[in-house]
Automatic annotation (TrEMBL):
The keyword Ion transport does not apply. Transmembrane segments: none annotated. Residues 71-188 form the Response regulatory domain. Keywords: Phosphoprotein. The lineage of its organism: Bacteria, Pseudomonadati, Planctomycetota, Phycisphaerae, Sedimentisphaerales. Coiled coil: none annotated. This is Response regulator PleD. GO terms for biological process: phosphorelay signal transduction system. Gene3D superfamilies: 3.40.50.2300. It comes from Anaerohalosphaera lusitana.
Amino acid sequence: MNKKKDVLTTGQVAQICNVAPRTVTKWFDSGQLKGYRIPGSRDRRIPTGELLRFMKAHDMPTDALEIGKMRILIIDSDKDTAEDLAAGLETKRNYEVEIALNSFDAGIIAQRTTPHVILLNLMAQNIDADQICSYVRTNDELNSTRILAVAEGSGEKEEQALINKGYDGVISNAGDFTATIAMIQNASTVMQ
């Protein structure tokens, strides 16, 4: 079985959706289907998360699009806490979890794996969470990645302020794996 592709050509999208490649080009050019153009070329590329969102929005069957494991990146300077969270998530669900202990590693891992969801500990030392959030929001390759702020003990006002900053949700108790998984699933549903 081939490894799931994160980015598809218009021809691959046409095959998945059972339409002509020209139809996919029209969807792309009209802005209905988001993606990017290859620099110096007219070729278009569509992230699989965006295609899945488009197909669900238009009640198209998605079984032809193989999704695979959800990729999660945990960014936290506390190695033990990050490893405990990763182990808990991997035990409860079939997630592919990576850990970054600093901003540099987070950038490298995010570019390499294109995570579906990032769990970003706002209390992590030597990590500028808002800068990471801004970077993900402005990076075309990560435009479908969802960012959940891990803000232990946060209240409703703090959570709304974080959402206004660009976070997709807030986890106020990362030790509650049921609630954390629900937040991840909710973020991925929005993504799809």
